[in-house]
Amino acid sequence: MGDTQAWTAAPGAAERARSVLATAWSCAVTAGGAREEYVGAHTVTDEGAVLLTLPEDSAPHLAALRAPRQESRAVLEFADVAPVPVRDRIRARLWLAGRLTPADGALCFHPGRVVLRRSCGTVLVDPGEYATARPDPLAVAEAGLLTHLAEVHPDAVERLTRLVRPESLHAAIRVLPLAVDRHGLTLRVERTRAHGDVRLPFHTPADDLGRLAERVHALLAQASAAGCPRALQRQRADGDG
Question: 59: helix, coil or strand?
Fold first, then answer.
């Protein structure tokens, strides 16, 4: 990727965990010997505690009420799902283990152990770093941004492949936007029986949507000045045949 910036900063594990929490639309709760899944039932405080609004007869609610001092152990699981329909859409999984207590008609979960699993591996996140971290500033808008890019501007995605090393595009059947954060854009390169991810870093962080537009336009300008990858040219030739 010689035509792109060499800087490859990415969100840290604590920030990534908070981003997963900020955007996940469902969660699984294991408490009182039962595992139940809920949609739209959680919110997150600034300190990273999770507030759960669950039915009074749910297993987590009953476990908290019946536990000594009304404090039960629980595990929460969240999945980060790519908004664009790519192969293997789960980008990360987050597990939180901690205490579950009743709080003003809801349940308050205080995590003591934070585990994040991504394609690059599994990491134990320091609870203090988790508590002080904040979600990526683009996290909430990411789904709409990527969907718009994939559906309305597929030509822009194709142009961005000019910034990808030709060997990374070998045997590619399609390329789609997988993720975006303030540090860069990630593309998913799909082949017949495999796939890989390529990251296009921004030259400086994009801390809001205005700066993101500037960074993406800079990448597109870079791509326009680059040549079309030979691997992609061969792919087109084979397809035309």
Answer: helix
Backbone angles phi, psi at 84, to 5 degrees: -90, 135
Range(s) of the domain holding residue 82: 13-132
Tens digits of residue pLDDT in 31-87: 999 999 999 999 999 999 999 999 999 999 999 888 888 789 999 999 999 999 999
What per-residue string of b and e applies to 82-112 under the rule 16 or more CB within 10 Å gives b?
bbbebeeeebbebbbbbbbbeeeebbbbbbe
Instruction: Quote the Cα angle for 155-236-166, to 5°.
Output: 80
The percentage of the chain sitting over the pLDDT mark of 90, rounded to a whole number, equals 81
**DSSP label at residue 227:** P
Query: Which residue among 84, 103, 132 closes a domain?
Result: 132
What is the per-residue pLDDT across 14-31, written as a single tens digit (0 to 9) for each?
999 999 999 999 999 999
